[in-house]
Specification:
Helices cover about 30% and strands about 15% of the residues. The chain is of the alpha/beta class. The chain has 4 domains: about 210 residues, Response regulator (Rossmann fold, 3-Layer(aba) Sandwich); about 110 residues, no CATH class; about 130 residues, Transcription Regulator spoIIAA; about 170 residues, no CATH class. Helix 10 runs antiparallel to helix 22, helix 16 packs parallel to helix 18 and helix 18 packs across helix 20. The two termini are about 25 Å apart.
Length: about 725
Amino acid sequence: MQTAKNLFGYRKYWAKRFGTAPFLPMTRAQMQALGWDSCDVILVTGDAYIDHPSFGMALVGRLLEAQGFRVGIIAQPDWRSAEAFRALGKPNLYYGITAGNMDSMVNRYTADRKIRSDDAYTPGAEANRRPDRAVLVYSQRAREAFPDTTIVIGSIEASLRRIAHYDYWSDTVRRSILPDSKADILLFGNAERALVELTHRLAAGEAVADIRDLRGTAFMVPRDWKPAPDWAEVDSSEVDAPGPLIRHADPYAMEPEAGAVRQEAGPAADDVQVVRLLGRPARRLDRERSVVRLPSFEQVRNDEVSYAHASRTFHVESNPGNARALVQAHGERDVWLNPPPIPLTTPEMDGVYDLPYQRAPHPDYGDAKIPAWDMIRFSVNIMRGCFGGCTFCSITEHEGRIIQSRSEESILREIEEIRDRTPGFTGVISDLGGPTANMYRIACKTTEIESACRKLSCVYPDICENLNTDHSSLIALYRKARALPGIKKVLIGSGLRYDLAVRSPEYVKELVQHHVGGYLKIAPEHTEEGPLSKMMKPGIGSYDRFKEMFDRFSREAGKQQYLIPYFIAAHPGTADEDMVNLALWLKKNSFRLDQVQTFLPTPMALATTMYHTRKNPLKRVKRDSEEVETVRALKTRRLYKAFLRYHDAENWPLLREALKRMGRADLIGNGKRHLVPSFQPAGTGDARTAPGPRGPRKPGATATAAATYPARTTRSPRARGVRPA
């Protein structure tokens, strides 16, 4: 893998003389108190400003401050006019615009497209403090405020919309966010490297339109632009041939290469043009000087096979060690994506997290409660990235598969900071984790293999033989963390990858006997092979092995502890029978699920591709390839949710009718072998009707759920996006 310049190896900008701000300023008065007449960079965010490294704008702001730049923050501005965007004056270098730690559409709407009643990232949890598609709106208002100012967009909303993508809320394929936002450049993924270099180059007088060589950036260019004449363009069919395509959607808009014969078919009765590429010569290209052309926006909008093919190609070209640049036509211009950023080293990660954060909300918020802050104020991020590759999750698309870990020393310093500086601390650390609890310092056995790999997951269909599954570093960290003076308990709140954990019984014992507060959340997601194979999740046997170890080590410690499993209903690949079997498994194991929500297809996730196209992008995509069982209809989604909450009397009429239609009336009755009783308590149930078996063929309902155990209930929703920028 390429090396990169040290994140803290740049000569500091002249404004370093102003020193460190207690909080980054949000008003002119606060700027003047610091002696500033202007800001070099103004960050606009849809979240409240909390000066803590789990919140993207604080992390980015403090990092730029450490480089010597003056950084102001406009948090949750009134987007109805440009006036709020003039509050700090014109930035000397650029506006940095983000929707916040969460995608604004996920933040504002439920999976049924209803507006949420609260916002965890807003003081007082007040709803409607950010617009729909916040990056677009903020960019437009910033451009109105100062038309000649550079606009840089980033974080998760922009990152996951960097190419043409299916948009669940409008049920359409939308263009890349770049042409709609009119931004000058987009930074995707964990963008510290690109951000720091971009800022220094702009400060040195370089025009943003000339900065085209930064990894982790995307931008608009004229059609067929290349960084240099010797760059080679590779058709995406050479990466993964998609097979015959619909006649009206010319997929590649390129002349056949020498030695290739394109078979032209005249108009057929089914109006399909069969396209085959024959005799393609083998080519050895310099990957660092080649670009893969994806099917155009117009093509993927009109042709679902082309969309699935583009999605698969995008994911195959995602390893920083071997990824090529990507380009996708949008009308007469191209969206150009440079390869993903080089992951941070451990010293660089330490440097980012050791910056002088106040670890508190900005004083302007007074005593207002901010739920996202309350959730993470006593937790510590120890790593980023995830090599699980779960198709319904966007972590991999945003943070990548390569694990980036902090040092023990840095983590322990942060725990001591929490102990000494965070009001309300009682001695309990709520989490040492990240996207997953137990991938700390786990990596490929060699950097050479890691750099060459193009797999979508390191743990599916089984754990890769080249993956070093040693948990000893994490065990040592746990022991040192709980041994710190003043630390009574260190809990693990991040989701556990249990199929990885069972490879280290010593880790499971350490976790279960010292770091579980009665309940531990894990995510088997389903029990049936159909949906599990589309999720890239292990079979339920892995859960059974982990549960056996969990129960054994709990007994040895003399503790009564429980697992809290999360499940997904109606994920692509799920049929009626799968949901019946899952419900029966839940009843057999005495699980009663609380807090169930429907599946939310997020941009660029592989499960979203299945949802939209009914094709499986985990394999080569062809027009006649496997169709994925999908569900979109509201009634069917409601039914699948009801199966997860089989114990709720409100759902019994719906389930009875559905079971009869499925030919499973044998599951209706008052015995232990029955799923739902034949009687209906007074005042429960309604006249809802169930859909017929299998329902409409498009997916739509994912459920996450916390489990309720006999005589004891817990409500433990998944953390919604509180991760590094």
